[in-house]
């Protein structure tokens, strides 16, 4: 079976890897470098904690698959730092974890997720890239019959997977698949300081920030990000202006509430999430073309790859135009 995967971010690579293991002949194409765009950066937060029992269950399966990848790669890809969640969503998230049978505890209003930790995105990318061998190629269009139109010409595959991040909406709109195209700018910042704490998602507002998150990036470095009001992250403002506003808000947050960190950022990471997407994975299909999109996908990447590959080889077909909202 010949499959073309469009997109060499963590989800595209995970899907290609799973398809190769299933015996498919796979080409993975991306206009940019592998693990670029939304998959850029050293680390992400892995967590089982979610507000939906279905996503909790899928994250538990993803955890098992991350362990498999770690064994194959010969390096630990999810650390043992753990994760904690604070703020008004704790009761609902605790209920979702209880419903899914996920181990956790709530102490003084803070949910502790023992399966959480820091995801080594660099290590995962190196492992997947070595296994998949993605190719640099711009894809202009895909057809429902499996034709893939690249800058170099047209090729045909038995199936196509589109996991192209911000490029997905334009590629699949002609197929009748409606993927939200509204994007926003986002930036997180790295500070020096102790990096031996749990990852933390805090839904309590602070100043201009509606919520914050923080986690280790590498030894002695700590990443902090926050979510500004929609008006401050609008696409029309431009990446530089949104990063400026984010930097001011995050630095203020660090100065006041994280005194163990040096409040001068030493690095900045920008990305372009879908506006208002939040947690969740979405899949659809038109003919031979399988599409996957969403935000906060890195932690679920092995599970998404497993499911999309199964769709492609016919084990769990989504059906024409079908869609799932939790992988």
TrEMBL record:
Highest taxon of source: Bacteria
> Pfam families given for it?
DAO
Q: Which residues form a coiled coil?
A: none
Cofactor dependence: FAD
Q: Which UniProt keywords apply?
A: FAD, Flavoprotein, Oxidoreductase
Sorted alphabetically, which InterPro entries does this protein's record hold?
FAD-dep_OxRdtase (IPR006076), FAD/NAD-bd_sf (IPR036188), MTOX (IPR045170)
SUPFAM superfamilies, per database record: FAD/NAD(P)-binding domain
Question: FAD dependent oxidoreductase domain location, by residue?
Answer: 2-309
PANTHER family in the record = FAD DEPENDENT OXIDOREDUCTASE DOMAIN-CONTAINING PROTEIN, PEROXISOMAL SARCOSINE OXIDASE
Name-wise, this protein is: FAD-dependent oxidoreductase
């Amino acid at each position: 079976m010949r499959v073309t995967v469009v997109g060499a971010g963590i989800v595209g690579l995970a899907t290609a890897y799973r398809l190769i293991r299933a015996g498919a002949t796979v080409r993975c194409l991306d206009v940019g470098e592998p693990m670029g765009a939304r998959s850029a950066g050293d680390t992400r937060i892995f967590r089982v904690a979610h507000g939906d029992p279905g996503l909790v269950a899928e994250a538990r399966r993803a955890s098992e698959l991350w362990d498999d990848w770690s064994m194959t790669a010969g390096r630990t890809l999810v650390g043992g730092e753990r994760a904690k969640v604070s703020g008004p969503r704790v009761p609902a998230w605790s209920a979702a974890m209880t419903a899914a049978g996920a181990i956790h505890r709530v102490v003084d209003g803070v949910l502790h997720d023992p399966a959480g930790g820091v995801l080594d995105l660099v290590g995962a990318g190196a492992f997947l890239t070595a296994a998949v061998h993605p190719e640099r190629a711009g894809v202009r269009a895909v057809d429902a019959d499996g034709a893939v139109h690249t800058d170099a010409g047209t090729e045909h595959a038995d199936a196509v997977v589109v996991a192209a991040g911000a490029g997905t909406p334009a590629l699949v709109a002609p197929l009748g698949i409606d993927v939200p195209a509204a994007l926003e700018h986002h930036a997180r910042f790295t500070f020096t300081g102790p990096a031996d704490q749990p990852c933390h998602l805090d839904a309590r507002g602070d100043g201009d920030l509606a919520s914050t998150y923080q986690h280790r990036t590498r030894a002695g470095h700590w990443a902090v990000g926050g979510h500004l009001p929609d008006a401050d992250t609008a696409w029309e403002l431009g990446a530089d202006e949104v990063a400026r506003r984010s930097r001011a808000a995050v630095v203020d947050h660090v100065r006041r509430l994280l005194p163990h960190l040096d409040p001068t950022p030493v690095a900045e990471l920008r990305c372009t999430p879908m506006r208002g997407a939040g947690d969740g994975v979405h899949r659809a299909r038109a003919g031979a073309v399988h599409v996957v999109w969403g935000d906060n996908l890195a932690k679920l990447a092995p599970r998404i790859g497993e499911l999309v590959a199964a769709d492609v080889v016919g084990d769990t077909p989504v059906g024409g135009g079908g869609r799932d909202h939790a992988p």
